[in-house]
């Protein structure tokens, strides 16, 4: 009977893999009894809207309104997209069941808690942003409060992975606050980047010290191409043409140095960078030469803009001015899957 149940569970996982990833080909790996991630069964998520699967208040407008969630699950689910986002695809790629949101932790069957938890809130950053939700430090505080309780013991963390996605909102908030003063942006952005990355290093070290063995940190995306910046026609647009590309480059350079430092401290590769930057560019620039990834004809035009929805979200890379469609995230993870697998397979 146990063998039959395991076979049924594997079949259901295979079907789920196909529905989410299509021809991403991860389903082929599920047939192996020695899957490299078979020992990792918890995912803890910290960050912003790129990874938030439903923590934001359901009374807030926008993400909990139509047409968000139109592709999956057919209604708003608190995801900043028409469907699945980064967290969904990473969990599936690692064969980890989707974690419960912190906001729903008291409302679900307690068995759901064994798969981990998402503390991510849309709009948040490393520091205080325009969003009235917990920033990175506060999210880790929430996580720490659950350790050593009936929810999570220290041994529970030995097989866990953390996904940490922050920083973009810190920069967007700063630029918005100074949009009428380009000089403040030009001379203030680099000191802010250094402050953000330094605090990120502190936060990553803290998560590891709390017991999480593997921590994945996405690099900053090419912000100069997100519709929020690229399609702007005011002074903000002119400023970003000069500084946003440099902003992203400087942030990612410092982030790589911080992660290298952290890995040296721990004497193993506990920390890994998910290369959002090059993955986004690869998909944006794809003209059909990448097997398994269909090109987006107008990748920099968002599907949902000013209350108007495009004909087919699957044809769009960006969902709105900042976030990707489900198809966009799917394509990004097709590009990333091999590197993620290699980086997160090794046990520590």
Automatic annotation (TrEMBL):
Keywords: Hydrolase, Lipid degradation, Lipid metabolism, Signal. GO terms for biological process: lipid catabolic process. The keyword Signal applies. The keyword Hydrolase applies. Residues 1-22 form the signal peptide. It holds the Pfam family Lipase_GDSL. InterPro entries: GDSL (IPR001087), SGNH_hydro_sf (IPR036514). One of its GO terms (molecular function) is hydrolase activity. Belongs to the 'GDSL' lipolytic enzyme family. This is GDSL esterase/lipase. It comes from Eruca vesicaria subsp. sativa.
């Amino acid at each position: 009977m146990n063998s039959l149940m395991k076979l049924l569970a594997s079949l259901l996982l295979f079907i789920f893999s196909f529905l989410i990833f299509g021809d991403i080909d991860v389903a082929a790996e599920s047939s192996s009894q020695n899957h490299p991630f078979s020992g990792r069964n918890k995912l803890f998520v910290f960050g912003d809207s790129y990874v938030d699967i439903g923590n934001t208040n359901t009374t807030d407008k926008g993400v909990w309104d139509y047409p968000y969630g139109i592709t999956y699950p057919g209604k708003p689910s608190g995801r900043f997209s028409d469907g699945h986002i980064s967290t969904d695809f990473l969990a599936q790629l690692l064969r980890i069941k989707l974690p419960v949101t912190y906001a729903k932790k008291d409302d679900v069957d307690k068995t759901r808690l064994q798969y981990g938890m998402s503390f991510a809130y849309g709009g948040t950053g490393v520091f205080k942003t325009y969003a009235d939700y917990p920033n990175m430090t506060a999210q880790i505080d929430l996580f720490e409060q659950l350790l050593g309780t009936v929810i999570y013991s220290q041994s529970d963390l030995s097989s866990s992975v953390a996904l940490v996605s922050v920083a973009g909102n810190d920069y967007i908030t700063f630029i918005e606050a100074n949009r009428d003063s380009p000089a403040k942006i030009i001379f203030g952005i680099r000191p802010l980047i250094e402050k953000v990355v330094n605090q990120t290093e502190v936060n990553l070290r803290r998560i590891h010290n709390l017991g999480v063995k593997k921590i994945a940190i996405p690099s900053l995306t090419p912000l100069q191409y997100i519709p929020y910046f690229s399609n702007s026609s005011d002074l903000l647009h002119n400023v970003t043409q000069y500084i946003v590309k440099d902003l992203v480059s400087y942030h990612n350079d410092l982030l790589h140095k911080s992660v290298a430092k952290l890995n040296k401290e721990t004497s193993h590769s506990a920390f890994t960078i998910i290369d959002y930057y090059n993955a986004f560019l690869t998909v944006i620039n794809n003209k059909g030469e990448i097997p398994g990834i269909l090109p987006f004809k107008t990748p920099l035009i968002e599907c949902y803009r000013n209350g108007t929805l495009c004909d087919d979200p699957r044809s769009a890379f960006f969902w709105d001015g900042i976030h990707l469609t489900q198809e966009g995230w799917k394509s990004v993870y097709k590009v990333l899957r091999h590197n993620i697998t290699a980086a997160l397979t090794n046990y520590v």
